[in-house]
Specification:
The protein is mainly alpha-helical. The protein is built from eleven helices and two strands, in the order ββααααααααααα. About 75% of the residues lie in helices and about 0% in strands. The chain has a two-stranded antiparallel sheet with strand order 1-2. The longest helix has 28 residues.
């Protein structure tokens, strides 16, 4: 399958890259490969994992300090939405291992700064989704006490809205950051390639999204300590998911 383009000439920049057809067992293989990368760089991976733990504690403290249920729900889903952006260094780890190089923080920092403009575009769009989600849920929960018997339905509606926002963010960012790192792709091409891959492999990537949610929930259930393990594994697995899904020349 060739990369799709926005026009007819071969020299035009692709609108998005084509993807492979995935099978239902692929997400479990990505997790195994992510675990293998974790074992090859245990201390490096745990350093990243602990950053996520501290970040999660900060978010939970903010929600607790504000005593705002909408903020708590939004921060939990915001953590899932922002995860792909925060895992950029983990993608670089797997990329370096793939090339039989030793991962270093210096290389990850250099690569992150090199791709800063595209990362910033994606991070800004995802952040706007999170902010809009917080505002919308705050409004809904704010009017909830006046609704009497309808309170339960509004709680379900709030949860549904959060899931929809998380789904939109997942489609746009599932493979975007790994593609930016690997191919120096611009933000629009990376997001369109990600959306195309998700739409063409709905069942498989829906399962992948569920596995991400489950492992993240395990991390939250252990007072966030489990994120020190699950987050690096998911980050590495996402890199392998990208490499097996998006068709590139190398």
């Amino acid at each position: 399958m060739q990369a799709q383009t926005g026009g007819s000439t071969e020299d035009e920049i692709p609108l998005y890259l084509a993807c492979r057809k995935l099978s239902i067992g692929d997400p479990f293989r990505w997790l195994r490969m992510g675990w293998q990368d974790f074992r090859r760089t245990v201390w490096h991976s745990l350093a990243y994992g602990l950053l996520f733990v501290c970040f999660g504690w900060l978010l939970l403290y903010l929600a607790w300090a504000q005593q705002n249920n909408a903020l708590f729900i939004s921060l939990v889903f915001g953590f899932l939405i922002m995860g792909p952006v925060l895992c950029f260094g983990l993608y670089d780890n797997s990329h370096q291992l793939e090339m039989n190089r030793k991962p270093t923080f210096r290389h990850q920092r250099k690569k992150a700064f090199h791709e800063m403009r595209y990362e910033r575009l994606l991070a800004m769009m995802v952040s706007m989704l999170v902010v809009f989600l917080v505002c919308l849920l705050s409004i809904m929960i704010g009017i909830e006490p006046t609704l009497g018997p309808s309170t339960g339905s509004y709680a379900m509606a709030s949860l549904l809205i959060a899931v929809i926002f998380a789904g939109l963010a997942f489609c746009a960012s599932a493979f975007a950051l790994p593609m930016i790192l690997h191919k120096n792709a611009d933000g629009a091409t990376a997001m369109l390639s990600s959306i195309n891959a998700v739409l063409r492999n709905k069942r498989v990537l829906a399962l992948w999204a569920v596995l991400i949610c489950v492992l993240t929930a395990v991390g939250f259930a252990t007072a966030l300590i489990g994120l020190a393990l699950t987050t690096p594994v998911l980050g590495y697995a996402t890199w392998h998911a990208y490499r097996e899904t998006i068709i590139t020349k190398e």
